[in-house]
Specification:
By secondary structure, the chain is of the alpha/beta class. The protein has a single domain, classed as Flavin prenyltransferase-like (Rossmann fold). The chain starts with a strand and ends in a 25-residue tail after the last helix. 38% of the residues lie in helices and 15% in strands. The chain has a six-stranded parallel beta sheet with strand order 3-2-1-4-5-6, with helices on both faces.
Length: 196
Amino acid sequence: MKIIIGISGASGSIFGIRLLEILKDLNGVETHLVVSKWGQQTLEYETDFSISEIRELADYSYSQSEMGAAISSGSFLTDGMIIAPCSMRTVAAIANGISENLIHRAADVIIKENRKLVLLPREAPLSQIHLENLLKLSKLGVIILPPDPAFYNKPKSIEDIVNHIALKSCDQFNIKIDIGNRWDGDMKYKNKKSIS
C-alpha cells in the first residue's frame, strides 16, 4: 500500500506527524510525504519536531515545489492521500483545480484518478466559502474528516485525542490499528458527575 501524507499550514500538524509514526511501524505501507512551507513553520512552532525528523518518518519525502515528483503523476500508482491538517487555502486550491504546490497537485491527481482523498480540515468557525469548497469536494467523493475530538472514549490526554483522529483516518483505508477505544455500545452511566 502506498499513501501520500500532506501536511499543510493549518494548526494541528501533530495529526500528520502521528499518522507518519503509526504508518512507519506497519509492514506493507509505504508513505510519501509533502510538507508545505507554512506546514513546516507551523509544525516547528507547535511541536518539538524538526522538519528533518518528520521527513525521516516517511519512506519518501518531497519539497512542495518539486512538481515533477513521482506523486505528481497519475501513472504513479498509490492507494490515496491524507492531508493532515488541511488548511482552508489548500481546500480552496484543490476544490478549484489550482495546483500551486505539490500537495495541491498530488490531491488533484488523486481526484482525477478516482483514488481515495481524505482531508482533515482545520478552521473554526467555518465561513460559507469554506463550507461550499468542502461540499464541492465531498460531492466528488473526497472524505472530509474534521479532527474533532470524541469523548465517548474518555480521553485522558491530548495524545488520546490525536490517536483517535489517527485511528479514524487509518480506518478510511481499512488499516486497522489498536491505539484507542472504539465505541462499543455500552451506554451505562459510570461515575456520573455534574460539570457545573
